Records
---
Amino acid sequence: MMESEHRTLSDAYERPGVFSVVLPRRRRFTVVLPVLGLVLLALCGLLLFGLATARVGVLAVVVGVVAAVVPVGIAVPALLWVDRWEPEPAKLLLVTFLWGACVATLSALLINGTAGAIGEMLLGKVPGSRLSALVSAPIVEEAVKVVPVLAVLWRRARDFDGMVDGVVYAGFSAAGFAFTENIYYFGRAFAEFGFDDGGSSMLGVFIIRGLLSPFTHPLFTVITGIAIGYAATARSRVLRVVLPLTGYAIAVCLHALWNGSAMLGGAGAFLNMYFLVMVPIFVGVLLVVLWQRRREYGIIAAALPEMVRERWIASSEVDLLTSLSGRRRWRRAVRRQSGRRAARAVAAYQANVTALAFLRHGRTPARARVDPLSRQQELLGTLHASRTEAVRLAGSNARRS
């Protein structure tokens, strides 16, 4: 940590009575549930790998994995960029991604396969497969992909800050789902047609799924995530039910239209669907997300002067905390001066400042049933703890130097 920043943190807070709060106890989680969850993820992943290699071969799966990394490398950084003001826990995002890649994909495969088999028995092979793609796939896939969003809202309601959190968790789950799905599609195209043998080749499928539409699955599920995020902070019980159902219905309809254009209408219908429907919707969702990020900036900028008056933060930190670029420069400077642990402590400090700003603005899910004063005290405790850790690491590094 730079010397001036070290003095800022030390001088601003090392006064008696400023943080007269008790640091919150860590919740005691059982060991059994996390272990069972990891075992479930591993089993689902192994089953999917076995099914894929049995259908297209090991080499095709390896090629599919390499190609599927590209759209993930586009979608995941974009979602992390959306989440910069108050980043979600990395472990939770990883579990969400793995849910989409393993559990959601396997669940959808089993249910869609059953629905397709029943459709073939009743309607014949072609109508049955179309029924599965147009009806059961959108309904089932959009339901299983959104499970992590609901789980986070249920288990961590106090930390669920609204629309952005809904977008991030929905997007990560859908990105994981698309990753596994793309492995199979890319691998099958490679096994049947090779790299470059027309539109159905590995290259053709990669251009369509990997480059033209890497946000397709995340886009559908993000619409539901936006609806859940708004519903989370709504005070009306009707809205808390109607908004998620409406978002889910829109996601299912768009998913069905997308599958229908690819299956039934040929290249012309697919391109019309892509440019006239999907691209405008993607731009609309992007504008909503940008508007929300701008709104979050306004909330934080308005709250910082009040935090200075309350002596929660130092006045010299306002400029550093007001912008994402200022926060990033602060972390980089601390990393150079005091190492990664100190930079992580500063990042936690910045995230707690954001959480306090959102709390004072009333951004608390209705389900959380949080007493604002007790939640404020809890956040102040974690704010003080992260600041103290940063100062301690900066001081120890200065003594070593």
---
Amino acid sequence: MKNVDVELYMNQFITFFEKNPNDLLDLIGDSEKDLFYDKVRQRCVQNYENGDDITLTNRQIMEIILEMKNGEIPHKVHKLFEKTKYGYFGLN
């Protein structure tokens, strides 16, 4: 059974990237967008089932991207984060 809130969120999520295709390319690179959307939907459902907000956090989106890239950090992400002995540090 589909959750209406998840479907509304996904429609907005997909519409944003349809209107901003370069942002999607920057985010997932050459990965399959349908796979990305499926993983986002799965995470939204998981959030809902856990009683959390269905809206994904930046961290959850990055986890999906890293999972799709087999743990490789995309080049653009290296510019945003500085690797230290304590892990990655955001420079924003």
---
Amino acid sequence: MKVAVIGLGYVGAVTSACLAKLGHHVVGVDRMAGKVERINAGEAPITEPGLDDLIAEMRATGRLEATQRLDAAVGATELAVVCVGTPTGADGSPDMAAMDIVVGDIGSALSANGRPYVVALRSTSLPGTSERYRALLRERVGRDDVDVCSHPEFLREGSAISDFESPAFIVVGTDDEHTAAVVRELYAPFVASSPDLFHVMAPAAAEMLKYACNAYHAVKVAFANEIGALAATLGLDSHAVMGAFVKDTKLNTSRAYLRPGFAFGGSCLPKDLRALAFLAGRSDLRLPLLESAIPSNQRHLARTLDRVLSLSPKRVAVWGISFKSDTADVRESPVVDLLHGILAAGVPAQWHDPDVAGALTRRGGSDSVAYLEERIPHALDLHVPNAAELAVVADLHVVSKFDQSFAEVLRAAKAPVLDLNGSYRDAISADRYVGLLW
């Protein structure tokens, strides 16, 4: 393919050279004459391991060149990959001034040639950006055969070439099949060997994904540093602690817990977070990340209650009140708190949970039942043992955990189903399925 890469900073310079290595003819574009001159001289405009050699090699093949003329680059190519900077503005928002100029200049160039064209935004930008630029570009050009998609990059300075050549995934945010196919063609060798690498998402979702990745990386660093600081305060080897921590690839370094859903609870997580905060406070040490986990969880619970009440139910059925599946433990269960909130708002509610039902026969000997009665004194009177009976009396079903018996009853029910964890998407008809946050 013939590709224009606009912006020759860290992302653009690496992208240009690596796309040329994949066999494409690449025209790099930058307003700074020095960057253009260095590329054309076979030198890297930035410091990045291996980039000088790669650019020299690609210049020698004739597949890489650079220019200051954006109009000429767009006129000679079928796809523009935009890599201009979006630095932080005074209010924390990305400064889109450079992007505004580039998209405007692309529009001017496309107005003159009348060819179909795809613009892939590699620059990090807020959700909705690519869709906004697509509308602006089409309005300026006066045609619908030009498209703008999100194409986030996941390159780290210092290892950018290896990150490009061994990607965890390749993402394009578009609702247009042709655009997706054009971007897929850029990475044909990668996709041919690993088809699952290529992900097509909604444009705004792709933009959000980039922020989610970087935020999670920042959270991981902050988490390790807070645990390390507390360990050091106690005279412990923080590297030994975290060295053992990362060996657990089942829960600690895995996809476990990383799915949007309902709040956390139970007899361990809240208790241990409080204990860590206490331990740090005893040493006059603040752990803002860990201290914020419980308030964040409570805020999520409040959002969930707002979501339930926004549906204006007259009677609610809550399916599952233990803090997770396959347990009768309701201690600090967020579902119990949600049930309490629904009742406090004056909405009648009842519940059904086979896991908890067995504990009801051990009243007086169950910490779980004692907690339930303390939180909601008349909670046991709200228990409905018969699932079919509960299914017909409510005009809203709130489901906290997956249970096949729940799915079978709710599939036949008539009222909407609010799914707190996204487990029933395939079990409930779309006209009755209500997601928590999506």
